[in-house]
Write a structure and sequence with these properties.
Blueprint (H helix, E strand, L loop, with lengths): L4 H8 L5 E6 L3 H11 L3 E2 L2 E8 L5 H7 L4 E4 L15 H12 L4 E5 L12 E5 L4 H14 L1 H24 L13 H15 L2 H11 L14 E2 L11 E5 L9 E4 L3 H5 L6 E8 L4 H8 L4 H15 L6 E4 L8 E11 L1 H7 E7 L3 H14 L8 H20 L1
Parallel strand pairs: 1-3, 1-4, 4-5, 5-6
Antiparallel strand pairs: 2-3, 7-13, 8-9, 8-13, 9-10, 10-12, 11-12
Length: 397
């Protein structure tokens, strides 16, 4: 389906279907791919194909169409590339990645590329037949990456449409108007986009993919941004030691205020070291008293209190995104210079909002709390009860 206006219109008019781009310089292979794909469906939607025999048409066609999957030959013609020279398919794939994300299936008779990395990149030999190609296509679809990509793209367009239409509508107050500094408009648009992707709003997007997603509970992966955003360290960033003691790496969380690090005012950074939950003494005692139901439940309750944040010394971090379940220990603090951090530690994740703020709040409360003598609660309670009883008796008389 290359270059003809009629074919392009047909492809654009395919409605709610999965769009596949096939790039191969062998017209016979293109026809085989089209024949393989034309009868497929996924999530009750058919597949439609557009094709090209030119590898450098990949990005221009992605600009024209909302492509969900690219099927790509590796070599153009039969000539082997010179030493250090990339195959035409690999060049096209790099150009695709530089423009936007889309899953790719290499379908080739030549040695498979090293970039084979399911479900993002599959590699299938043509000698295995179209059945193998069909299985790779359905594996990509089962990963739901095309659905996720569509969801994000549609959301970005919705936010852009909403904000720019509001900008054009003079009846909408508190929106920068034409004639405003362009930077103000850009800031307004980007902040609205960012706000639309915060926790309170993102749940409705996720429910389009998973109706069982619950917004009323915190999911462990909501705690983290991994890898962290930006190059500069921020309060709540999670670091792992480059120098392991024993067989397990050590974790620490950064507590120094972000502003002090951004402006270079902090000559030493403050960290709280972390304990793996499975190594905490309470967990060890749970295991030790497995046969003693009373003590087992007692220690289990203490562990639940740690997880629920009822011990001020610790801040619990759940297991997610390759980070083990941790307890940030506010009694185990260490100062390091930026040079020591760069040499000995790797910044692997950031705590997302509001968990970074909650961490700082808990840390501040732990060290600024003020102890006072306890009142005799039992005596005061008895005095109040006696007063109520005496008042009732007086009223009865």
């Amino acid at each position: 389906m290359e270059g003809g206006l009629k074919d392009e219109r047909e492809f654009l008019d395919t409605g709610d279907s999965w769009k596949v781009l096939v790039i191969d310089d062998d017209q016979e292979a293109i026809e085989q791919a089209k024949e393989c794909i034309k009868g497929l469906t996924y999530a009750d939607k058919p597949f439609h194909v557009t094709c090209s025999t030119e590898f450098d048409r990949a990005v221009p066609m992605l600009k024209l169409y909302q492509i969900d999957l690219v099927i790509l030959d590796l070599r153009q013609g039969s000539r082997s590339p010179q030493m250090g020279e990339e195959e035409a398919g690999e060049k096209a794939h790099k150009a695709i990645r530089a423009y936007r994300f889309v899953p790719v299936i290499y379908w080739t008779n030549f040695p498979l590329p090293e970039s084979h990395n399911p479900p993002w990149v599959y590699a299938v030999r043509k000698s295995e037949g179209t059945a193998a190609l069909e299985e790779a296509i359905m594996a990509v679809m089962r990963s739901r990456l095309p659905e996720l990509s569509r969801l994000l793209s549609d959301h970005l367009r919705d936010v852009e449409r909403s904000v720019l239409n509001a900008w054009a509508d003079s009846s909408v107050p508190q929106v920068p108007k034409p004639g405003s500094d362009l930077a103000e408009i850009a800031y307004y648009l980007l902040r609205r986009l960012g706000r639309s992707l915060e926790r309170e709003q993102v749940g409705s997007l996720i429910q389009k993919l998973d109706p069982n997603w619950r917004d009323d509970v915190a999911h462990p992966l909501q705690y983290y941004l991994r890898p962290p955003v930006g190059d500069l360290p921020m309060t709540g960033d999670i670091f792992v030691s480059r120098r392991t003691t024993g067989h397990l790496p050590e974790y620490a969380v950064l507590l120094t205020p972000t502003c002090a690090m951004v402006h270079g005012k902090a000559s030493r950074y403050l960290f709280a070291r972390c304990i793996r939950v499975i190594e905490h003494e309470i967990v060890q005692k749970i295991a030790e008293h497995e046969g003693n139901l009373g003590k087992h439940n007692q220690h289990r309750k203490r562990l639940e209190e740690l997880i629920a944040g009822k011990h001020e010394r610790y801040y619990f971090l759940p297991e997610a995104l390759g980070i083990p379940a941790l307890l940030v220990d506010f009694e185990n603090l260490v100062h390091m210079t930026p040079e020591e951090v760069e040499r000995d530690w790797e910044r692997i994740a950031a705590l997302d909002s509001p968990y970074a703020e909650a961490l700082v709040s808990r840390f501040t409360r732990f060290y600024l709390r003020i102890g006072t003598p306890d009142l005799d609660a039992e005596a005061i309670c008895q005095s109040i009860v006696n007063s109520v009883v005496d008042r009732g008796m007086s009223a009865a008389v």
